Fold this sequence. Notes:
By secondary structure, the chain is mainly α. It has one domain. The chain has helices at 2-30, 36-54, 56-59, 63-87. The chain is elongated and about 80 Å long.
Amino acid sequence: MQKTLAILEQHVQWIALGLGGAVAGTILIQSGRVNYPAAALCGLSFLGTVLAITNPHLFGPYISNAVTLSWVVFLVVDIRAVIAGFSAVPQLEPENGA
């Protein structure tokens, strides 16, 4: 009974991590066409987790790589957005007579 519960717990953990990647992909799709390739990579993490649960011997060794890839891709897109955001911030002009 405990072994089955532990396996179920592990499956839920991997599905939750894959869903996190899928949510990240959804956010990237809504943010513009530039991020479509990154969104596809994020969506692959959810697909990877489902495949690993259905056929663990074939896809199991790659599940952590798929989840890691999606989170790293999302992090890179966020860093790129922050850098682009800093360059797009308008400069403040000093007031006249100050």
